[in-house]
Recover the amino acids of this structure.
């Protein structure tokens, strides 16, 4: 069974440009999460989808970030326009249900560098 | 708001030595507690979790952790470290009814000397 896959693994862009990160969750997982780790700091929650609906987007930093999950399958996270402080590693995770199994399956992350 | 503290940013141990990684949390109720590991080039993998019951929990790869309510701690241990354990380790806390929304610590980078 394929795990959570993220693309690209690394993206380097100029300040002011746009970047779109993609996450493919494990097949059949209704719950999809985005987290971010800024260098040297903790991994922080960004948002949570249940199927195609945003369940919780309390961690989204500002309106330059737009997350979508069309059809309840893969998700994209767009940053437009990117700022220097957006640099970090963006993790996607998925889980099968909301019950507290704690079993979040994480992807390898997409490293974003904004110059 | 809940928080997680991992006081050790880097730890170096010799292969075969015992290991203890510290984790303290701040949360008003009994939390759900987790340890994740990220090996180079891989995603975060769940090592173990604590929800309730026995305060000593066993995980994968020979790791265990003990929940101590009085100390608000959930330290990770391994009796004998292998070189393949070199990785970054993250402690995390989940909220009751939080739907798998986790609060992570800053991580501890483990180096294993041969």
């Amino acid at each position: 069974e394929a795990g959570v896959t993220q693309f690209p693994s690394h993206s380097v862009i100029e300040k002011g440009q746009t970047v779109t990160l993609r996450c493919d969750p494990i097949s059949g997982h209704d719950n999809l999460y985005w987290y971010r780790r800024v260098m040297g700091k903790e991994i922080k929650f960004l948002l949570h989808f249940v199927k195609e609906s945003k369940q919780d987007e309390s961690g989204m930093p500002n309106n330059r970030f737009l997350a979508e999950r069309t059809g309840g399958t893969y998700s994209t996270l767009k940053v437009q326009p990117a700022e220097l402080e957006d640099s970090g590693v963006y993790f996607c995770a998925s889980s099968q249900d909301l019950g507290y199994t704690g079993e979040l399956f994480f992807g390898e992350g997409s490293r974003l560098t904004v110059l | 708001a809940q928080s997680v503290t991992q006081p050790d940013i880097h730890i170096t141990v010799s292969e075969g030595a015992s290991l203890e990684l510290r984790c303290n949390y701040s949360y008003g109720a009994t939390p759900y507690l987790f340890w994740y590991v990220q090996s180079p080039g891989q995603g975060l993998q769940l090592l173990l979790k604590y929800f309730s019951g026995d305060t000593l929990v066993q995980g994968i790869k020979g790791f265990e952790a003990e929940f101590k309510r009085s100390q608000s701690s959930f330290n990770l241990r391994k009796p004998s470290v292998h070189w393949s354990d070199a990785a970054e380790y993250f402690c995390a806390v989940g909220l009751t009814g939080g739907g798998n929304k986790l609060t992570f610590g800053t991580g501890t980078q483990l180096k294993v000397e041969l």
Observations:
- The mean pLDDT of chain B is 92.
- The longest strand of chain B covers residues 87-94.
